[in-house]
Write a structure and sequence with these properties.
Length: about 140
């Protein structure tokens, strides 16, 4: 029983972190300020990147907490963190204290693991799969 609980705790923690960052982009800093920061880092289409990232982090963060569409959101977050690494953090060293890449590397690794873990039996994806399998079994009878 430890594996499903560990996967649940990992998903909830990761989802919470992403959700909080999306909330920050929308409510605390605002999309315009986030876009201005991305522009200063030479990110292409900074306003689109700011809005897209904020939406992904809010919606995807909630999805991770629930365990919904984990392969999709896990890969999207991995790609998002790869972009953050390339455009913002790679040249600043490893440590967060210097705006380095340790956080985005950790978030990318965790997102990749979630994308391929299946989320465990306590994820909504797993429950939906079991429900579909049971419905298909009944349809065959």
């Amino acid at each position: 029983m430890a594996r499903p609980i560990a996967l649940l705790l990992a998903r909830v923690a990761l989802g919470f972190i992403f959700f909080a960052h999306g909330w920050e982009k929308f409510v605390v800093s605002g999309i315009d300020a986030t876009a201005a920061y991305l522009r200063s880092e030479s990110v292409p289409l900074p306003w689109v990147a700011a809005l897209g990232t904020a939406i992904l982090e809010l919606v995807g963060g909630a999805a991770l907490v629930l365990g919904l569409l984990l392969p999709v959101f896990g890969m999207l977050f991995t790609l998002d963190m790869l972009g953050a690494f390339i455009f913002v953090h790679a040249d600043k060293g490893i440590f967060v204290s210097t705006d380095g890449f340790e956080l985005v590397l950790g978030l990318a690794a965790a997102s990749l693991a979630i994308a391929f873990s299946g989320g465990g039996m306590l994820a909504a994806d797993s429950r939906l799969r079991r429900h579909r399998a049971k419905a298909a079994e009944h349809a065959v009878r």
